[in-house]
Structure formats: structure tokens, C-alpha cells
User: Fold these one by one.
Assistant:
Number 1:
Amino acid sequence: MKASTQAILDKFARTSEEVYALDELRERLDTGRPLKVKYGVDVTAPFLHIGHAVNLWMFRELQEHGHIIQFLIGDFTTRIGDPTGRSKVRPVIPQEEIEANAQEFIRQVSMVLSTDPAVFEVRRQGPAARHDSQ
């Protein structure tokens, strides 16, 4: 096993209770080809919360080994809110607010993740999805 593979797996072991398909992850890391890891968020608020921190620091570790993080902005799912109309927790948010929240998320993520285009991409899921590589 490569030293970089072991370093990554050691970090996962510290921050994860269980890694499903650990043998497959080890094999993929050992190939030396960059992984593309997708991380999706709905932008229902203008800020990340502490629950994002462990993931972001793990993704930074992956970036430092040359792997690509694709940050997926869930602008479409944010826009529809609660389709049943029963939940006040997921209200319909105006497009301008969604865009402002998305930009704020990208700004905040860039405080932890490298925004070097070689290891970071921003994608949107909306119907007119813009692929904003940052």
C-alpha cells in the first residue's frame, strides 16, 4: 500500500466510525489516479454549520493528495422547499436569496478547501445549471 493511501486511510479512521467499501477505496487510492469526490449542499441558509467541518477538513486532506472535490450546490432542491407545503422548516426561498446563499457557501468553503481548479470544482444542480469552476 502506498504511503499516501495509508495517510488518507488513517485520517478517515480518526474521523469516521465506519468506511463502507474500504477495500475498494484502498484499491482506488493505490492506483494513483485522482478521485473525484462529490459533496452536495442545499443553500437554505447563508452559512455552513459546524456539522460540515469534519467533511471539509477530510476533503482538504484529499485535495492535498491531488484528489478533486466537486462542491454541488443544491439550488433546485432549495428552490422547491417542501413540495407538500406542510413544513415551515423548508419554505420556498426566492432565487436571489438562493444565489446569495450559494455565493456565501462558496466563500466559506474556500476558507478550508483549496480553490485551485486542479482540485476544486463548483457545480449546480438547477435546470439552468451553471458550472462555475472556481
Note: The mean pLDDT is 87.
Number 2:
Amino acid sequence: MTSFTEFTANRVEGILNKLSPFKAPGRSGIPNAALKHCATTISPILATIYTSICRLNYYPHRFRCINQVVIRKPGRPSYEEANAYQPIALIETIAKVQSTMVTEDLSYICEKHKLLPKNQFGGRPGTTTSEALHMMEQFTRNAWRKGNMVSALFLDIQAAFPNMQKERLLENMRVRNIHEGYCNYVNMILTHREI
């Protein structure tokens, strides 16, 4: 892995080539198919832009702007209820490419230094719902073997707490000695966002 403030053209090109070509674009209207097609040509330019964003600690206003559209959920008996609709955030793809690289880095750091609890399965590479179910089954069987009863409470945490507190997230990152560059990046992308 290169230093936080340096993004390579090869890495950018790799992310561009993984883009789903038919996803809706952000405010620029540049389709993913065009970015994929031009990946080799634009990767060095984007790598320079991403590196500059981190070195200058400046996140472009255009990257902070999100188009949000509301679409109908299919198969609903009535569309007169608010929950029959789903908001979709259309984030600028060029901004998402950098965020993807930072996410990969942070994920690697968390796994390498064991910064996440063993029983956290969401948002981690290589973990599946099946593994979470197996862990729960094993816990239950072990309790039964000891003659204990087991009760479970399932919560949809994401729905119950749909947003996070930026300052708390940054504090948690710093306590875990995450490089300050990553903290600054997270702070930049979560400050003054517009929908």
C-alpha cells in the first residue's frame, strides 16, 4: 500500500474497470460506461486529483453535492404511503472512486490490526450472513449443553440509527491510531454535504 496521500494511476484504473457500466451517474451526468472506456487515459489525471485532494485537505464542492431521487418500491398495493417509496442517492462517480480506495485501505488496516470485534460481520470483507448464523448457532448449542436457556433479540440497527455522528466516528478513528490523513478525508467528505 502506498502512503495515504498518494494514489496511483494503476489503482485508480483498477477501480474504474470494476464500475458497473449502467449505474446512474451523479450530477455531472458522466456515465460509468464512459469512465470505464477511458480508464487508461484518465487514471493518471484522477490519481493526481485524488492525491492533491488529500495533500491540500480540500474536497471539491461538486463532490459534496448529491442528487437524490425518490422511486416507487415495486409491488406495493398503494403508493399513497410514504414507505412505498425509496430515496436513492446519486453520488458523483469520480468522488466514489476515491472513496472506494480509502474504504479498501481502512478495511485492510482494520483487519490487519484487529480493530473490529470478532463478532462484527457487517461491512467486513470475507464475512457472510452464513458465518454470522453459524456463530449464533454455535453460541446457542454451547449454552444448551450447559443447561442454559437462550433468548435472542434482533434489531435492525441501520434502520433504527440511520445516521452516524461524524465527531464520534473521527474520535473512534483517532483512538485506534488511524492515520490522520484518513481522519481528515472522512471529515472532508462528511462536512457541508448537499442533497
Note: The mean pLDDT is 90.
Number 3:
Amino acid sequence: MRFHGALTAFVFTLAALMAEPVLAAVYTFTDANGVIHFTNVPSDPRYAGMARAPYRAPAYNPVKTSSEYRAASNRYAPLVQKAAREHSIDQALLQAMIATESGFDPRAVSRKGAVGLMQLMPETARRYGVRNPYDPADNIRGGAKYLRDLMRKFNNDLSLTLAAYNAGEDAIVQYGNRIPPYRETLDYVPRVLTLYREYQRNVR
């Protein structure tokens, strides 16, 4: 299927970029309508340079073949569909987040201690009643509930919601309800949005 080929190529490209530190600058600005723009080649004086910092590769081992990626994605599709339906979240968004957060590895643990498919921090897992963050169903359910709360808090602004999921709610507030200038977050938001668009076009 063409989608899986394109998506796998995208994932492979990300994996290659993550293999060693990336030092290219990322630029961003928020326009009058509140839309956040990202680029590595600024063509508008409103872009402000973000500090350069090496990207830290995730703790999990990403899938290495298209068949592995399809199998991993399909394996959790029923759980994703159930959580999306129960918490009124687009299934494609949850799929994109899981792909970005853990590469569909339910045993993934980040350097900061985030666990499972949706990389829940221990306090977040407790907050949403996740008893076993390594259990795919429990992890996806807790992550979906947290995502739903973030969407409500940030008035369904998807960019801010994703930034809050990655950097924490307090960081968004600290920077005046804008995406904080953290390299990881500036990478994370457009990455999820890109995969989200791919899933929207092809998963349903």
C-alpha cells in the first residue's frame, strides 16, 4: 500500500536524523490569527531563532521494516479505536501520537521515566488511574483521557495541546499560552501533525 510505503519512508528519515545530534536551527513565530509557523529556512522577519541543541534519540528501538511497522500499528488499532470513541478523540491523532511517542513499543521507557505506548509519566499514570502503564489498553486509555483534558484546557488548539503533552501544561502557561522554545517540543509538534495528516488520509 502506498501509504505504508510513504509513512515508513518518513519514519526511516526521522530515524536517520535521530541517529546523531541535529544542530540545525529551528525558527518559529505566531501570526495574528494565533497560527504557529515553523521553518528551518526563515523567509519572514517575524521568525525568531530558537537556541541550537542536539536532539536526543528516544529510548525505544523503532521498527526497522515496513512489515514490522504495519504489524505494530495494526496490532493496537482496536484499542486505539475504543479509546478514541470513548474520549471523543480522532483515532488518527492517537495513532500519530503513539507512533511518535513510542514507535508502537509498549515496553518503551524514556530517560525521564515516561512509560509505554503513549509515554505516560508516573504522576500522569496515577492521575488517570493507570494501574499498569506497560499494558497497552491501560496506557492508551490513560493517554487518551489526558489528551482530552489538555484539549479542553487549551480550547482545542491542537498545537498547544501537543506541546503540553510533550513539555507539560505548566510550560505552556509559563510562555504565555504559546509553544515553549524547547528543541524537543519544536520537533515534536510538527512531527505528530505530519503523521496525523497521513493517518487521516489513509487509515480510515
Note: The radius of gyration is 16 Å.
Number 4:
Amino acid sequence: MENLFERKLVVVTGKGGVGKSTLAASIALLGSRRGLRTIVVEVGDQSRMAELFGVRPEESGVERRVAAGLWSITIDPDRALLEWVQELGGRIPGRILTSSGTFQYFAAAAPGAKELFGMVKVWELTQGRRWQRRAAGYDLVVLDAPATGNALGMLHSPQTFGAIARVGPVAGQAKRVADLLRDPAQSCYLAVAQGTEMAVTETMELQDGLAQRLERDLSAVIVNGLLPQRFSSAELERIATLEARAPRSRSRGGAAAQELRLFAAHAARAVHDRARFQHNQVARLRRRGFEVVPVPFLWRARLDAGALGTIADQLERRLAGENAATTSR
């Protein structure tokens, strides 16, 4: 597998509720560990990074340092639009342009406009020369993209909007964003899934959508929350014997002990069955030709910076390549 940390942009998406934001944060943390000035980007109303890293949340659109070498930002489309228009407008103040009724109608009505503003901001974060002259650039941008369907719409928005604008600075900017998203040397795509039939099916649909809309493939599928397959065939036979033989004891203490053994056998069977189903779903992904990166279930009461570090440790060799150096670019 190629070294993902040689790219400027890593897009993380997948079915909602599978731990996508947690994995995006862990990948960003891993980038910062490798000496890369890194930012993890959230979109829409979600703003989980501050909580995950245990820092005070910042207002939307503001870059916030959350760890050594690592920043986060939640994109505010209106603020991103204002910054973009100020960059395009030259001597004309951006607030005057954005207050125009005609411009506001166009921005609200044009297909993919809000999504494009977000993607333009993502593109800007990857540049060495920022719109705000004193702002430093980033070596690595990790985009915690929306769930699959919305992510595909967002990623396709530069092409949609570029087709509407056709010529001029807006079309030019849309093309630059589209070029970033299409270039394998600059960007890559990761899916996060769990070992469920629905999540795996959605991952396959994501791959098809990327190929159709961007002519890109998923670099890997991270399967989150995998349970280990703990029991051998002989051990499973013993568990089955415990489940089948549940003689009643006449003593209260004996009955309680037998009941406890029965519950333990049922629990062991349930965990085994769930783990087997999960690994069968992983096999579906591998049969489709995906690079699968397993992440074991993390037995923690809550996710925090320490948990993110543990996940980053599990991801490092697979996402950075077997012989990747741990130096900055």
C-alpha cells in the first residue's frame, strides 16, 4: 500500500455511525507525529475534534491548535465564501460583493454551491500561499467528510459548479479544486466501515461513485471495531456442551453457579458469532479487491486523546507503508 502521508489531502468518508470522525482524528494525529504540519477538517454542523482532543471548542471557520503539530477547523460555508470572494474581488471589499442580492441568490440557488465553498476552503488549506497572508500552510489536510452520499455530492461539486460557470475566475477555481481531487499524487480516499452487511455494501457503493464521478479508487477500507476470533473448534464444542447441559442444582449456591456458567457460555457464543459475522464481511471486501485495514474494538469507557493515540498506533504501519520513513517532507 502506498504511503498516504505523501499526499496533501486525505479524504475520510463512509457510512454514518461507524466511527469516521474518530478515525479521521487518529489519522491526523499520526500525520502530526510524523512531523507534518496537519489539520483535520470537519464540515456541516459537526464539531467533534475539540471534544476528542480535550480542548475548548472554537467558532466555525477558525483554525484551532489541538495538539503538537495538529490543528482542527469546522468549515463555515458563509465564512469560506467571504474569504474566497475577497480573494477574487481584488479591490472590491468582499462584504460588498456578498451583500449583493443577485450574488446571494446565485450562491443559494446554484447546484452544489455550498458544497463548493467548503471544498474551495479545503483546497486553500493545502496551499503554501494562503488567502490570509500571515496564515501558515499545512503539509497534510485530513477531511472528515460527510457520510457516503453527501460526501460524493460534495466531492463532485467543483465539476458541477465549473460546468455552470464555464469561464472566468469561478470556473478557474473550481477546476483547481477538481484537479486536486482527481490527482492521485495529491489526494487519496479512505472509507471507514464496520463489519456489518449494510456498512460494507455502502463502501462498495462509495467505490463505484468515486470511480464514476472522479475516476478515483479507494486507497483502503478501515474496518473499525473488529472483535477477535477467540475460540478454537474444541473450545466451541465445550461451550456448546455447557449450553446443552444445564442440570438444576438443589442447593441455592449450586444453582447460582450453574446459572452463571450458562450465562457465560451464552455470552461467549454470542461474541464468537458476532466476530465470525464481522470477519465474513471483511472477506467480502477483500474479495472485491479492497485493501483492508482492521482496527480492533477498543475497550474504553470514552474516546479521548489517549484512545486516538492507541488507534494511531494500530494504523501506522498499514497507512504509512511498510518501509515508510518517519520524517517530514
Note: The radius of gyration is 24 Å.
